[in-house]
Every structure is written in C-alpha cells, then in structure tokens.
Design a protein that fits this description.
Layout: H1 7-27, H2 30-38, H3 41-68, H4 71-92, H5 100-125, H6 128-160, H7 163-184, H8 200-206, H9 212-241, H10 244-268, H11 274-287, H12 298-327, H13 331-335, H14 337-362, H15 369-380, H16 382-395
Pfam families: MFS_1
Subcellular location: Cell membrane
Protein name: MFS transporter
Amino acid sequence: MARILEKQAVLLLIVQALYGVANALSGTFLPVYLWKASQSYSVIGWFTLAQYVVGGLTFWLAGKWVKEYNKMNSLRAGIALSGLFYCAVLLLEDAASSWIVPLGILSGMAGGLFWLAYNVVYFEITEPDTRDRFNGWAGLLGAAAGIVAPWTSGLVITSMQGVKGYRLIFTISLAIFAVSVSLSFFLKKRQGDGAYNWKHGWMQLKQKGNPWRRMLPAIAAQGIREGVFMFLVGLTVYTATKDESKLGMYSLITSFVALLSFWLVGRWLKKGGRKWAMLVGVIMLGVVILPLFQGVTYTTLLLFGVGTSLFMPLYIIPMTSRVFDLIGQTEESATEREEFVVLREGGLTFGRLIGLAAYMLVLPFNHSETAITWLMLAVGISPILGWWFISPFLDSQRTKA
C-alpha cells in the first residue's frame, strides 16, 4: 500500500500542529512562570500531579463519550478547555500559584479530552503502512512548533520584562486555540459505534498470554521519562540561566535538530528495522544525559538537548506505531480502539506518576545540580526497560507475550 497520507490525516496533523504551537508558546514557560511566582519545586510537582491524575481519569471517563457519541466534540472540548486554562492563568496572575491544584485539574481535563479523541481519530485515518509516516510528520510539525514558538515567547517575555510579556503570550495562545477549534470542523464527523466497556483494560491484563501484559509495561516505561522531562528540562534551563530568551533559544536549537531527525526517521525507517533502531535510540537517550555530570550549565544542557532531539525519533516512532498496530491487528480489536487507547493512556499515566514520585521525593528537599542530574539519569534510562518489553513485537508481527 502506498505510504501517502489522506486529506483527513493531513488536516488532523494541521489541527494538532496548531494545538502544539499554542501550547509551545505558553506551555514551555508555564513551569517557569509558576516557579517565579512560588520559588517552589513542590508547587510545580503538585500542579503536575493533578494534571496527570485528572488527565488519566478523563481518558477513562470520556471513553464512553468518544466510543458512543461524536468523538470530534471531545477533541474540540479539549482545545476549548486548554484556552480556558490559559485564560484562568491570565486572570489569576501571581495568585496562580495559590490555585495550583484546580489549575492542574483543568489542564488535565483539557489534555485528556483532546488526546483521547486525537488518538482514536489518528488510528481510524491511518493504516500500518502509513503510521510511521504520520508519526514522522507529527514529530516534525511538533519540532517546527518548538523552533518558532518558544523562541518567540522568550524574546517577547524578555523584552517586555515581566508579567506583561507572559500576558501577551498567553493571549496569543488563546487566539491559536480558537483557530484550531475552527479548523477541526472540517474533519469528518465520526459518530460513535458500539457500547463502551468500562472493564476492558482489566480484562486484557487478566488474560494469560495477552500481548498487553507485556506492552503495557513498555508504555509505562515511556511514561516514567515523560513524567519528569516534560517540565523539568525547561525549568532547569531557566534556573541555570535566569533568562527566558536563553530558554527560547534552547528550544529553537533542540527543536530544529528534532525536526530534521523526525523527518529522516519518518521517511526511511522500515518495519524490519524498528527493533535495532529503537535499541540505539534508548541507549543514546541515556548516554546524552552524562554531560550534565560535568555541571548543569547552558552548554551541557544544550548538549543533552541536542542529543535527545537527535535520538528520540528512533525510540518514539517505533514505539507509537507498534502500539497502534497491535490495536488494529484484528477486526475485533479495531472495534475496541477506544478502550485500547484508554488502556494505553493508563500505562502512560502510571509511568508518569512513578517518575513524578521520584521528583517529589528528591527535588523539593534537595535541588542541587547533583540531585537534578541523578534524577534525570534515573528516569531517563527507563526507555531501555521499555525496549526490553516491546522487543518481541518488533521482531515480527507476533502478538503473543
């Protein structure tokens, strides 16, 4: 089958790209904004905890909505709530750090509704032969957003000196979210089909020999790394430099490298090469953390960021594609796609909470360079465990654990 993306897939990529741009503009600097207001690693941890827990619960609860009704409304609601979240941050200003848990809940609901619908629609409009290509383009567009948006935000925030810059950036994000919602109406209406099974995930894990008993730990290992790196890297760059424009430049450089890497891997990676490409990727994701042991400086952080951007596609593209290939392996499993997407998110949430627990046990009490580096190494090598769990699925199209 030709590896050409259909128009609906391209439109979904555009909607995701706009959503990514809006989040990259503001989300990159949100941990910095909260840290400046509170000077507390605990505050950021509690915000992230609320975000992860509610995000995972939203996937499970909204699964019925997406399964039985129009899933596009879930996607639009997620974008709209993301806009509402930044609106709340704007209105609260410095008091945002006092409303950290409610803000985390709102952010978690927004992300849960958007990504649940997005992942289900993504599965429906791609095939095994186009999935690597789609994921390559998704990563490429995400990297492109990371090039332009945070760099622009950093310049604006620095030049306007203080809260005014953050206000402007959050307002621009609101406008982009509105455009993203508008474009989503051009995606085909996808009415629900069948009844949602609340116990589906548990039933899969109870069944002896079920492939998800091995796949889910692989997904959780991915979540362990994500749970910390999604917010700690940018925050560490800022605390090392005390300059938002440096964080913007950091994002520009690392995202440019990621753009090239995602394009190359998405274009050339074949199914037969997934296993060893992924092994190289997970090993190097650990190796690139080692420069930080020489000191957490802008230079060593940049070495780490460039290395991560270079090797991440070798890990994340096969990981994502193989999980969704497993969901679509039979007609029966394809009809349970919503439940499987919820199960996948459950694994990610569990892993993220493990990573976040490590953060909460360490950094609020000891945020020295050594503590930060060892924490990043501990969670940063978790994809190696994920590769071990998923490797039998990369040898062939086998589905037995």
